Amino acid sequence: MSCLIQLSQLGDNFIKVFDEELIRPGTVGRIPDRPADALTLFQDLRAFPRTVDNIPQWMWRVFRAEKMTPPVYNPELGTVDWANKRLPVTDTGTDFSAEPEIIDPSKEPGVFAKISKKLFGR
Predict the structure, then answer these.
(1) Pick from 35, 43, 69, 121: CA 20 to 30 A from residue 24's CA?
(2) CA 85 to chain centre
(3) Which H or E run includes 90?
(4) Which of 53, 62, 51 shows the shortest CA–CA distance to 23?
(5) pLDDT, tens digit (0-9, with 9 covering 90-100), for 23-81
């Protein structure tokens, strides 16, 4: 979900709420705001991951429409997992300074082994 807030000295203030995440292109004025695509949401979730249960339905709709699996936070290991890759997560988000680890689903602990199998098919 996103919103647009306008505050003005003239008093024409307003708030618009949107059901999807809107992105603004680099060049303001040429292309209007538009819903975020799956790649944009993927990059956001990889940097600031969420558990499967905390990814909103509107994001799932975007991922399904574009046939993409989102990155998922693995709370048991403190990592973000995607496409059989894994990076550690800190209090401020994903640690991109680390080298991605390749996931071996046969070695996954507990409940996440089932989720990993469902997401990555192994």
Answers:
(1) 69
(2) 15
(3) strand 85-90
(4) 62
(5) 655 555 545 556 678 898 999 999 999 999 999 888 898 899 999 999 999 998 999 99
